[in-house]
Specification:
It contains three helices and seven strands. The chain is mostly beta strands. The strands form two sheets. Strands 1, 2, 3, 4 and 7 form a five-stranded antiparallel β-sheet that branches.
Length: 142
């Protein structure tokens, strides 16, 4: 099974519990998907992204990993991804494009709620670049 990450679960951005969760993943490959990406301010003053998949949307940049050994339950808990009506994310299968233009399916944590007030569109599709360009930082805890 593959995992597409586009924000605080990217190894170069992951801190604290997120870093622990992704430590066992391989180095991954750059990949893109289509959708809408927003930045949301977290409780600790840092920012995290939300992805709304949309085949007609802009490119969203991330990394795809082979995630067979990952502890999905722990990751689902971290992302508040569950079947209940108050889940923040849903883990779902989305198409991602690899550098060689091959399209593969991967699991991704996609936002399950209405886009919150104050969310900022990330028009360039890269959460890491947006953080750098705006001088913001990623959340360190949930």
């Amino acid at each position: 099974m593959r995992l597409f990450v586009y924000g605080v679960l990217m190894k170069e951005l992951a801190e604290g519990q997120a870093a622990d969760l992704v430590a066992a993943l391989d180095s991954g490959l750059p990949a893109t998907t289509r959708g809408k990406l927003y930045g949301v301010k977290g409780r600790d003053g840092g920012w995290y992204p939300i992805l709304l998949p949309d085949p007609q949307g802009a490119e969203v940049y991330g990394v795809v990993h082979e995630a067979g050994a990952m502890e999905w339950q722990a990751m689902d808990t971290f992302e508040d991804a569950h079947d209940g009506p108050d889940a923040e994310y849903r883990r779902q299968t989305i198409p991602v494009m690899l550098p060689n233009a091959l399209v593969v399916d991967a699991q991704a944590y996609c936002y399950a709620r209405t886009v919150p007030d104050g969310a900022e569109p990330i028009d360039g599709g890269s959460f890491a670049a947006w953080l750098s360009e705006t001088g913001r930082r990623a959340i360190t805890s949930r």
